[in-house]
Write a structure and sequence with these properties.
By secondary structure, the chain is an all-alpha fold. It is 44% helix and 0% strand. The chain has three helices and no strands. The chain has helices spanning 2-20, 35-54, 96-100. The longest helix has 20 residues, at 35-54. The chain is elongated. 0% of the residues are buried.
């Protein structure tokens, strides 16, 4: 009997705080917004747009610019030259004494 009472008491201590919560927002559950909340969101959106518009336009950057020299052609424009064909050297004549053997 004491074991059952202890189990019920332990369950009540664990489950009590969970039942004490009024409302927990569920996934995709819409919450009604007050007019003050709507006005605050609009004000924040206008402040964000002003901040974005005040940033000056920047020129595009080249992260590999320091790795390349300025006068080198782009990699796509490089031409790959074929290696020169090997020229055959004229064969040397054998000495006369070697031909006789």
């Amino acid at each position: 009997m004491r074991m059952i009472a202890a189990a019920i008491l332990l369950t009540a201590f664990i489950a009590g705080p969970a039942f004490a919560q009024d409302h927990v927002q569920r996934y995709r559950e819409e919450i009604d917004k007050s007019p003050a909340d709507i006005a605050n969101e609009q004000r924040a959106q206008r402040a964000y747009q002003r901040a974005i518009n005040s940033v000056p336009d920047q020129k595009p950057t080249d992260p590999w610019g320091i790795a390349r020299s300025d006068n080198a052609p782009p990699a796509a424009a490089k031409t790959h030259a074929k290696p020169a064909a090997k020229t055959a050297a004229p064969k040397q004549a054998k000495p006369a004494s070697a031909a006789a053997n």
